[in-house]
Design a protein that fits this description.
The protein has about 475 residues and is mainly beta. Helix content is about 0%, strand content about 60%. It has four domains: about 110 residues, no CATH class; about 50 residues, no CATH class; about 140 residues, no CATH class; about 110 residues, Immunoglobulin-like. It has one helix and 34 strands.
């Protein structure tokens, strides 16, 4: 049997006689045709656990199994092999992960230093149809040493012919297992391993009601597979939580959407586990979406907030900004009704219908992993009609010898161009030990370093908030 590989100046292709690409004639190849089940468990941190179960005939003694179609990002140090048919009868002696894939450039690199045949498709007068040459280098082009000359390129009608494949060069990622079996039998072998290249995250879409008091929320799980192989009819599980993964020793193309799937959730160690009710195929270089949450008429609260900074309480900065944006937040409690379930971290996009019934985008924000009974708080954007002007009206150093003591005063003017009144929450982080000396309306001390005021601003008018504070460092 001879194997020919053709490499042209403008194009490259491989012609292989036979389907078996193993260096060892005693090697047994296992393909996806042997697969009985595949379990895929994907974590949040570009990590997945694969259980690949295949039915393989073993002879008594040593067996060399070329386990094809594994992940190209497989962590070989994490793999585990066991017989499910007869536990304890099969043991692993050695394994080799061959991820150097069959391609024209790899063939050339493997042939450096060896003699190859250079074939000419249309030999002219005095030209040989085939010549032997030693391949000296492939760096920045070819360097070929013939019997009487050295050339640095191939002609447009020339190609290189190889008589065999180099050892360990495979057409797809392959894990070569050296297994010891105590008997001759057909076994269900489970190969498990960790891999990168598989990831998932949650995405949410919310439709805000016309009165802005309720929300219809849908959740989608987005899967991305860049691991180098396809997982056909996989039993899929997703783990939400921050799993500690030490550093390993070593473009989306297609999109496929699945909606209204049944996803079961359960507590798992210190994480949450989501199991897809039916199998699904996760193709290589594919993004897939699976629906996992639908909640209707979730009560929400919209707030307008002006948040300050801690830096200007210890320095003189008279003008702190005109037409400052007032942030808009939507919040809801992950509790009761169709909620009250662990929400994986992800992006939440909000929409609302206009007067004609057309849905328009309001804004988006990311949430962290959120347990049940916790509040989800989303920064949607900034108010167009509600703005603020802030200035420092006084600054005085009371003591400069330590501890440092500063007295400062501020004026905040909130403007409302709407035709209805609004309430604005003013939040000021005040550093060090502080004491409110004077204020135009009472504050709430929401934490040891935070003072807040809920300011009512009538329609088409302005409201002023003034206060002075003493800060000790």
């Amino acid at each position: 049997m001879r194997i020919f590989v053709s490499f042209a100046l403008l194009a490259s292709f491989v012609v292989v006689s036979g389907s078996r690409l193993s260096a060892d004639p005693g090697e047994q190849t296992s393909t996806l045709a042997d697969q009985r089940r595949v379990n895929v468990t994907i974590y949040n941190s570009d990590l997945a656990l694969i259980h690949d179960r295949r039915h393989i005939s073993l002879r008594k003694g040593e067996n060399h199994i070329a386990w094809r179609d594994v992940s190209a990002n497989l962590d070989g140090t994490s793999s585990l092999v066991q017989s499910l048919t007869s536990p304890g009868t099969v043991s692993l002696l050695e394994q080799n992960f061959n991820f150097d894939l069959l391609k024209p450039s790899a063939l050339l690199e493997k042939a450096v230093g060896q003699t190859v045949i250079v074939a000419r498709d249309y030999p002219g007068p005095g030209q040989k149809p085939r010549e032997e040459a030693k391949l000296l280098s492939t760096t920045e082009g070819l360097i070929l040493q013939y019997a009487d000359r050295i050339e640095t390129s191939l002609g447009p009608d020339q190609h290189i012919v190889y008589s065999s494949l180099p050892p360990n060069l495979r057409d797809r990622p392959t894990l070569v297992l050296n297994l010891e079996s105590t008997r001759e039998s057909a076994e269900d072998i489970d190969l498990s391993y960790l891999t990168s290249g598989l990831g998932w995250h949650a995405e949410y879409v919310g439709q805000v009601s016309p009165n802005e008091d309720k929300l219809d929320l849908g959740g989608l799980i987005t899967l991305t597979n860049r691991s180098g192989t396809t997982y056909t009819n996989a039993h899929l599980q997703l783990v939400a939580g921050n799993v500690n993964v030490p550093p390993p020793p070593m473009a989306m193309r297609d999109t496929y959407s699945v909606t209204a799937e049944q996803v079961q959730q359960e507590n798992y160690f210190e994480y949450h586990l989501y199991t897809l009710a039916r199998t699904t195929t996760i193709a290589d270089n594919q993004t897939k979406q699976v629906g996992f949450l639908t909640a209707h008429a979730v009560p929400i609260r919209k707030t307008l907030e002006l948040r300050g900074g801690a830096d200007y309480y210890r320095s003189q900065e008279p003008d702190l900004g005109a037409k400052l944006p007032v942030a808009t937040y939507i919040s809801f409690l992950n509790k009761n009704g169709e909620l009250g379930v662990p929400l994986p971290a992800g992006l939440v996009r909000l929409y609302k219908n206009d007067s004609r019934g057309t849905s328009l985008f309001l804004g988006a924000d990311r949430i962290d992993h959120t347990p049940k009974n916790e509040t989800v708080r989303l920064h949607v954007g900034d108010s167009f009609d509600v703005t603020a002007r802030k200035k420092q009206t006084n600054f005085h150093i009371v003591n400069a010898k330590g501890p440092w003591i500063y007295d400062s005063a501020y004026e905040i003017v909130l403007g409302n161009a709407k035709d209805q009144a609004v309430d604005v929450l003013v939040v000021e982080p005040i550093p060090g030990e502080w004491q409110m000396l004077k204020e135009s309306r009472p504050h709430q001390q929401s934490s040891s370093t935070t003072a807040s005021w809920l300011v009512h601003v009538p329609a088409d008018s302005r409201t002023k908030l003034t206060y002075s504070v003493r800060v000790r460092y």
